[in-house]
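Handoff note, outgoing to incoming analyst
You'll be picking up this chain. Sequence as last confirmed:
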Amino acid sequence: MTNTNINATTNNTHIHNAGYSSSRSITQVIDTSLPAGKQLRTTQSVLDPLTVSGLAILRDEVTSSKETAAPRFVCIECGEPLSLPKHPASATVPADGRGAYFKHAFIESAPACSLRTKGGVHDVGAVQFAGQQEGINHHALKLALAACLRSDPRFSDVQIEKRITAEDGTYRVPDVSAVLDGKRITFDLQLATLPISTIQDRNDFYRANACHHVWLTDAADLSRLSRQAFCDLHLTTGGRIFAIDDASIAASKGQYQFQLQELQLLPRLASQLAIHNTWDKNLVGIDVILMDPQRRKAEGVQRYQQALSNKAEDAFGPELRMLRDVATKNLDLRLVSAEWRRISNSISGMEPASAKSLQLDAVMAFLSASEHYSKARPENRAMIAPKLQRRLTTLLGAQSALHWSPLVVQVHQTFPCVQQALTPGNAARLNTLLTSPDKVKPYLRYNAGMLSVIFPWLGFRLLAKPPKFAPNLRISARR
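Most recent structure output, in case you need it:
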């Protein structure tokens, strides 16, 4: 079978050089997460390997850290915090990290800097209601949402655009608010793109003022879920987002219990196609709507990865067991060429020879050891740490090590205990790779499907992204 991913290299290179990436004004950044004095990184090495999900997660981190004493990325010239905008995805601009770039965060008293550029409407991400302050449908949806809440006797003081004021006099105005068991619940209907800084500002404000904040959208144009502003909402909450539609309105009023549709990203395996995603939908009540955000995120990620694991096991159970056994024992990938080929042919992955040339066997051995180490009881980890360290040493010393360094970082983010097990030599070598001036090739993107099938705990970060087709929901044009 033709190697789909390898043949895509030419197209990826063409896209990468289409103008948006090569026009990045800031080509180097200081990454404050690395050891002091060893923090200079190329923008290409930071951004280009990012998947759609990885980009949303990094944007969330960058935005939340900008206001702290330790912003994640700062300018090499002026030392000021950097933000992470993205060009709108198009036929020539990918939806992943290749379409992103760094620019100075807006600070009124910031010093002059030759790398500072002017902002544009797409940089901000606030193209709202075709230039109007609020759309007619937006107001109608506020009324519908408030009516649903009033139908539920558990809610009281349901108000539209009630000002929520903090002790310092600052305030926010949610679209709708209500009180449940003495706690203020606030709702914002997101119908237009919104800067991630505004999203975080509202989340922080309501949390600081003892409000539970709920973001939701409507069913009129769910293709918007693929826009970056909406990815910033659902990919940072485990691929989950609430929506109001005719069914949820009818259920809320008919059953006298407030309900919303919850959309959840889930993976789909289909023969001879790359793994892709669909939106699952369910009517949910306040047990889900008011769930702790971190718990909801963790459950969403777990649900995605469990679905991927189940589908992969059903389709390739015997082959996966062989591949995992080879990874556990750190054996040569050529021993399972037939098993690798059957899976890769089915999900448009690499041929075994190509995978071997990229040191996939060393990668799999490290991933297997990382998984084993993370599952071990803390008191037993000291005994198995040497195996993990040896396998990481092998991977970091491989010819392709530079191009796999983003995966190592991702493993550390998933399993912090693995990062804590690094030897000083491992840490120094990884830092050398991360700060290399050489271009990082997208080996991780090429092999995202195969690695996620073998190690489903990688799946959400590598594969989760909104599908091209929106879920089938309805909402009346006029309410």
